[in-house]
Amino acid sequence: MEIIQIVGLGLIATVLILIIREQKPMFAFLLAAFTGIYVFLFLIGKIDAVITVLQELAERSGIPGIYLQTILKIIGIAYIAEFGAQIVRDAGQESVASKIEFAGKVLILVMAVPIIGVIIETVIGLLPEGG
Amino acid sequence: MNIDVSAIFQIAGIGIVIAMIHTILKQMGKEDMAHWVTVIGFVVVLFMVVRLLNELFQEIKTIFLFQ
């Protein structure tokens, strides 16, 4: 029942943040960031197990490694960008947060371009010649 | 993971103590000292947060980006 640990941690951290925010908002921000990082670190161990299984499945079904690698990179970028944007948004900098999200989207698009190219090539190959 | 949950309480404690010291020094009329105390406390806490952030990014790199 690790969810109880996480929820308890979140509640305690929230109370502490509310106490400190009265005196020093900067410390409250750092405490929120620390709590977020801790929860993410906790979750990344679980994600690791899932990804190991996914890799095994991909190897067994003979999918080229580059596809899974690209997908994992995209997930990683989404993970980091979301995390950074949330922390920045907590500090009240909405515009910087949306820039971070935008950068994440663009980088994901860049990662996805080779896969899109492969798909389009496959579709063109399926089309009848001279049609 | 070498940083555990007690670090959250450490940060909260540092924040409260710094706020107290700041108030006391202000009452004594030492404004500049009070600001230096705040800055030093902030740097200490920032150091802790950045170390944990570094750990998180390393984990993400090894898991997602195959490096």
Automatic annotation (TrEMBL), chain A:
Keyword Ribosomal protein among record annotations: no
Keywords: Membrane, Transmembrane, Transmembrane helix
Record carries keyword S-adenosyl-L-methionine: no
Record-annotated membrane-spanning stretches: 6-21, 28-54, 66-85, 106-127
InterPro entries reported in the protein's UniProt record: Spore_III_AC/AD, Spore_III_AD
Organism domain of life: Bacteria
Signal sequence annotation: none
UniProt-recorded name of the protein: Stage III sporulation protein AD
The organism's taxonomic lineage, starting at the top: Bacteria, Bacillati, Bacillota, Bacilli, Bacillales
From TrEMBL, chain B:
Record InterPro entries: Spore_III_AC, Spore_III_AC/AD
Transmembrane regions: 7-27, 33-53
Keyword Transmembrane helix appears in the UniProt entry: yes
Keywords: Membrane, Transmembrane, Transmembrane helix
Protein name: Stage III sporulation protein AC
Source organism (scientific name): Paenibacillus darwinianus
